[in-house]
Structures
1.
Amino acid sequence: MTTTGTTLVIGATGTTGSRTAARLTAAGHRVKAAGRHAATVPGAEPVRFDWYAPATHTDALDGADRVYLIPPLGDSDPAAVMLPFLRRARAAGVRRAVLLSSSAVAEGGPAVGAVHQALPGLFDEWAVLRPSWFMQNFTGNHAHAVGIRESGTILTATGNGRIGFVDADDIAAVAVRALTDGSAPNTDLVLTGPQALSYDEVAAIMTEATNKPVVHRRITHARLRDRLTAHMPMEFAGLLADMDRAIAEGAEDRTTDTVQRLTGRPPHDLRAVLKRELALGG
């Protein structure tokens, strides 16, 4: 594959950013790997970037003609810092923007939904990735993964609700296509895995994968909100708890063919991803 310009990957040390940057460099594309401490990605140019430090934005944007956007974590109003940056990016020569949002947040919805709504008016070439919950939440450093390792417990307020959990590698594969294809998607893309699973079903799969008992412990929406408030701003904790309630009501019980359509292969299933991640020490 020939190079298509220079892509600024914001959040290049994160779950999808690191994978997207690695796929881009492996395919021969020029990448600026951005993070608060200048992300190190083989083959990419490291650059420091902080959403809340506009002085870091100039060097990050220099020479970039497309950008992969990871919103600031834990911010219930990311548009306040993202929209000024995006206007600056357009003026600096960025012509394509791909935004990571969520299947739970529609255009014009809360948090990053406002950025989604503004994106088509800022760039002629754009896409909004709206993945379901990550399969990597059960490995690594996510609260679910920590709970599984420490007590064999997954704690949610989702009841019997099902989710089309998606592999972060599949998200990155779609991101690369959205960033580098000759024509931008110019739409939002809901990304899921091949099947919708309840957390009870996930716990059973985790038990099988780890050879250790894992259970799903159900709690109320209010209790989840209160637990989350101990670790993040109250408004954002409430937003996350509301997402669990929506899952319980069936909002995420779906699958899509987006990964298959854009990558030419089916999305990975949870058993295969757990086998891969656990073998890597996740």
2.
Amino acid sequence: MAIQVLSFFTGAGLLDLGMHEAGFDVVWRNEYHLPFVQGFKYGFAKMHDASIDDFPVCTSSIENLTPYSIRNEAFSGKVWPSFFGVIGGPPCPDFSVAGSNKGSSGDNGKLTGLYFDQIIGLQPTFFVFENVKGILSNLKHRKYLTEQLYKISKDYAFDIKVMNSLDVGVAQDRERVIVVGFHKSYLHDVLGITELKELGLRNRLLLSKQLHPNIYKQHNWFNWPSIYKFENAKTNFEWPTTNAFGVKDIVCPDNLPPELCVGNYLKGLENIENQNEFFTPKSSKFLSVEEGDVSRKSFKRLHRWRYSPTAAYGNNEVHLHPMLPRRLSVREAMRIQTIPDNYSLPREMTLSNKFKTIGNGVPVKLANHIAQEIYRFFDCPSPKLGS
């Protein structure tokens, strides 16, 4: 039987998709923003040729949920399964460089604390936390994250890493903080007391140094996904810079990995749902911005033979098609987020909500690689406890 998972801040369900593809069974979802719920249900129903009623979502605020209420919804009031996980990426604008930077005092920022409170109450076998790099690179936000991890450290051993989607073959420069934790009762059974104490010492050191980057990078023990072909892709390859807009034939430079070139994801889309959905171009910038010029805060034009900047389509950020005088379409944005082509968003959903829910999610491919390593850990746990 597949390991069951509870999903918070589900959004379009991209983290859920990655977990599902790795063999997990997401049995309960929580999403407060109703347009995102609409998109999620439609997308999953299309993928599975099913009814939207087959994918229920709890729409209560996480502030109003208790472990008891979640148990009754997720497991029909029965006893907890012996293994289950919790996943979630709380809203990140309050920790983002491009956002409000309010941190824990913001309406979104406080949701991170509530997420860790739910972990304490639910006591899952494992959890996954995802957020923007700013929650670790900013001293104020890092202190807040340290406080949250300290709260769970009695029951959990955790590992933390800044992962770039490029490093697992996603054509997008997207850095995210990922925390993976395992319950100590499980680790005690599979690792033994000595190794568990070692993990505890590592966690205490990280917390005492407030997760300082120079410290946490030296103490990883979880087998974080890495594909040698794509490691340090931003610096290991000579990427093209800019070209005049409208040039038809630009040859792809030799030795670039095709998986990381946006142009390869913008082909064969003519008959796929959501491809003809994009904002009508009105500005003269659609004709003047050079291909590959991503220097602006907005109106960034992608280069066909380079990766995309972070797919974040809210807050007035506009990404332009490399070769056409318009923004990316909904489907093109979904391709960049590695969303399967048989996943669609409903016609009646507004374009703003479509782009927002797409940009808020974790690339499915990155989520899947993390999920695979968690699954392997349960199959044959072997944390790297060497120096």
